[in-house]
Amino acid sequence: MAPALTRSVPRVLFVTPEIHPLNKTGGLGDVSSALPAALRELDVDVRILIPGYPPVLAGLDNKRKIAEFPAQPPFPSSALLSACSSVSVPIFVIDCPALYQRSGGPYADTAGRAWPDNALRFGLLSRIAAILGSDISPLAWHPQVIHANDWQSGLAPAYLRFHQGERAASLMAIHNLAFQGVFPPATVTELALPAESFDLNGMEYYGNMSFLKAGLYYADHLATVSPTYAREIQTAPLGFGMEGLLARRHADITGIVNGIATDEWDPATDPALARNYTVGSLADKAVNKMAAQRLLGLTVDPHIPLFGVVGRFTHQKGYDLLPQIATQLTEIPAQLMILGSGDSALEQELTDIAKNHSGKIAVRIGFDEKLAHLIEAGADSFLMPSRFEPCGLNQMYSQRYGTPPLAHATGGLVDTIVDCTPASLMDGSATGFLFLDMTADGFLSAIRRVAVAYHDKPVWRALMQNGMARDYSWGPGAAAYRKIYSSLLPDSP
Ligand code: ADP
Ligand code: GLC
Hints:
The radius of gyration is 23 Å and the shape is globular. The model is unreliable at 1-7 (pLDDT under 50). The chain is α/β, with parallel strands linked by helices.
């Protein structure tokens, strides 16, 4: 392997299954473009490794083949391409048409069914990451740290640990412990991992094998996307069965709050808005409210509180509470606009409440980046009744857009929203609302609380201004990751 560089310029391979704007299903896509860009600003030599799905190959320029990996059953042959990205971070793409060249999403087909060969698809991602991080790498560039993200790259720390020879250190970043990459036990040996790793002290997980557990067990260090979530996952129920392992490894876990791409999410310049605005021109925000009301078929009314929702329709996000409170919400009076997709029963239920409350509730099913921006700007308040939330990005987008969020007090939502109380209003820290009682009644009374505050002009103005003044950039988070990398380098104390 190349001699270790000075500790001041760590070489890091950031391994991810999705990246904005090429292919994104949620916040990991946003993090995978914004964090590496911020790390490069801090003089970290970070490069990204991602599977070559069609939109990734189509969206990258100057692709060049830099290595070939011959077939090694069950892995088909693949090539490594280097490419340039819009985020100015070098990208390595795994070109393996047999595994990645198909229409549909990165993890599932168009009907939402997980790809049946996901173990192989993400086994290959993990395996190539580990090869690039070891002394058998075909490249001249040798990363010192492999930064794996979520279960899809969870086997990389395991492959590295079992490599006989020099290897990079590994960091396993948990963005969501609910997705665990669970496959039948035989997958272990099929993917060329030692049979003995199928063990409680290894990657065995309730009789199956888990990519995520492999990462949590074998990585040199663990990170997650907020300090509160780092604590929550060490106990049931939010440890999702991994709490024992995580509690044992508590000294190796760092919670780092995500940042956001402050250039893309900036109300002063956002091209998706009907009118740009700043903290000094808040009257212009109202133009976006009107635009959103018009676009979505809501009654145009500048005075009624308008709540916004954007997200994946899953149990995690708690949107199943919305149909239960829809009528009472409209009677406050208030309006609601919802953008998202996922659970088909919930898609139907939400579509139905919109039909039954025409002009007051609007629902758009689908993934629409532009509309997501308009909702952040046009809503008065943004709703996040998440049952759990490792970090959450939308509440930071909404605070930056002068749209105070209302969120369940869990995970990163606790770390990024300051609840509105007399004390927090007085000291100028209040930015939104948190509620504890995760029931329809609890959520509804929190919504009523927001509506009361909305009509108290000085209070509402203070919330908007406080939120817009806060720093959500990746600077502090990137510095914290850099510190972890440095601690993992061979010459660190
Ligand atoms: P998660 O990663 O759990 O989905 P986050 O809040 O971290 O939650 O990030 C979600 C990201 O995906 C945000 O950028 C959000 O705006 C975006 N998003 C989610 N659903 C949609 C949708 N239907 N249309 C557009 N953007 C969406
Ligand atoms: C996950 C989490 C979300 C987090 C995102 C990026 O999908 O659900 O809370 O913000 O990853 O880290």
